[in-house]
Amino acid sequence: MKRKFFGTDGVRGLANAEPMTAETALRLGMAAGLLFARGPHRHRVVIGKDTRLSGYMIEQAITAGFLAVGMDVLLLGPMPTPAIGFLVRSMRADLGVMISASHNPYQDNGIKLFGPDGYKLSDEDEAQIEEVLESDMSSRRAASAEIGRAKRLDDAAGRYVEAVKASFPRGLRLDGLKIVVDCANGAAYKIAPTVLWELGADVVRLGVTPNGFNINEACGSTHPAALQGEVVAQGAHLGIALDGDADRVVLVDEKGGLVDGDQLMATIAVRWAAEGRLVGGGVVATVMSNLGLERHLAGHRLTLERTAVGDRYVLERMRAGSFNFGGEQSGHIIMTDVATTGDGLLASLQALAAMIQGGRTASTTFRAFVPVPQRLKSVRVADVSAVLADAGVQAAISAGEKRLAGGRLLVRPSGTEPVVRVMAEHDDVAIVEAVIGDITSSLAARSRVAAE
To answer: How far is CA 422 from CA 66, 162, 379, in A?
Structure first.
């Protein structure tokens, strides 16, 4: 069933336009509260947000919705998305809410919901919430004496800081390391530097002056150029770039080189396997992860399980197959032994542990494999289904698959816009470029016909 409000990662859109309005947020709070009011106890929801201007509006509106159906609310203020999963369980709450549009610009916002187990809600739960949201809830409001209460949880950040530090190997410290951390002017702007400093690092802070408008603006994991320059200028040992809600990370080595999620997964997984910590015999990643990662893991007798693009699909496969490690090339790293969702700060600490224990520089530690040449190109089309069904396009795809023997080809529709994405990998970059060119040209030509 097509959902009206929820996408692949909660509800998201332009702030103050549907569905990201105060009215819809209020009704969403009511609907979610009604569905998760299970049992005779006093029900509780924890709510965090990032630093967007619209977060104030959404926070107040969704809080009112929960209160209206008798749920108590604990307001956490700016808090990384993974902290919500942790605090839902720590506070024995019935629901968790993160108000964030992750790596999007400030104009957007979103609402992510977590169940009492600390994991994001299932498709089934979200579908039920939508059904209730669009119904008449007036008769289900709480009685006057049963309206919920809201208060700030002042020590929320400290609780999460201690949990993150506890994930770092006992006996290790970051003394002697100079680390530049870019917090994207987002949710972790206080927490990330605090964790690194308390573990002993000399911390240089970037992206820690949020003003409601500058989240992810020319900074953070999606815009790492400033961090790369600062790491070299400061003579730092490592750079860490988080996104707006700190659920993803990329690193920068001491030479200014970028370290993506694939290299992080390769480094951490092999070390975990050597220590007997890796469960499931391999790693779960998406179809976008580089073929070099797959080959590297195979060389260590580890498997790579691939899923559709999206950290929720990675997590679903991890839970179904009893894996404890997975992630995305973009920097979502999921470690279910210590977190219920991607956590950029936790992943950074595991990477630092590998670097320290190996006694090597970042540029050596995080170059676990040589990536296979990979290219990704997107083509905007008039009708995705019609274009992909076209005989000429299918012929171009078939020809590309033959030319890429020993490599990989992925042609897929975007889940959010009328775009077809073409990704090709092969050891011969000339073949990759030729295949990408042929398929995208075919897509563009067919789209012009469809548009006419």
So the answer is: 43, 43, 8
Is the CB of residue 315 less than 8 Å from the CB of residue 327? no
Rounded CA-CA distance 195/183 in Å is 12
- What is the side-by-side strand order in the sheet with 333-335? 303-307, 282-286, 325-327, 333-335
Q: Are strands 108-114 and 10-14 parallel, antiparallel or unpaired?
A: antiparallel
Write down all domains in the chain, each with its CATH number in brackets: 6-155 (3.40.120.10), 175-257 (3.40.120.10), 261-365 (3.40.120.10), 374-451 (3.30.310.50)
- pLDDT tens figures, 198-220: 999 999 999 999 999 999 999 99
- In whole angstroms, what is the distance from residue 70 CA to residue 41 CA? 11
pLDDT average, residue stretch 93-104 = 96
Q: Is the pLDDT of residue 237 over 50?
A: yes
CA distance 78 to 156: 10
* Nearest CA-CA partner of 125 in 160, 96, 155, 164: 96
CB neighbour list of residue 21: distance below 8 Å, 6 or more residues apart: none
50 close to 83: Cβ distance less than 8 angstroms = no
With CA atoms as reference, report the closest residue to 355 among 173, 206, 225, 195.
173
| Cβ atoms within 10 Å, residue 63 | 21
> Which residues neighbour 327 within 8 Å (Cβ) at sequence distance 6 or greater?
261, 264, 265, 283, 284, 285, 311, 314, 333, 334, 342, 347
The reported pTM is 0.93
Length of the chain: 452
For the annotated catalytic residues, the residue numbers are 102
What tokens appear for 179 in the block?
């680390």
Determine how β-strand 238-242 pairs with β-strand 44-49: unpaired
User: What does R_g of the chain's alpha carbons equal in angstroms?
Assistant: 23
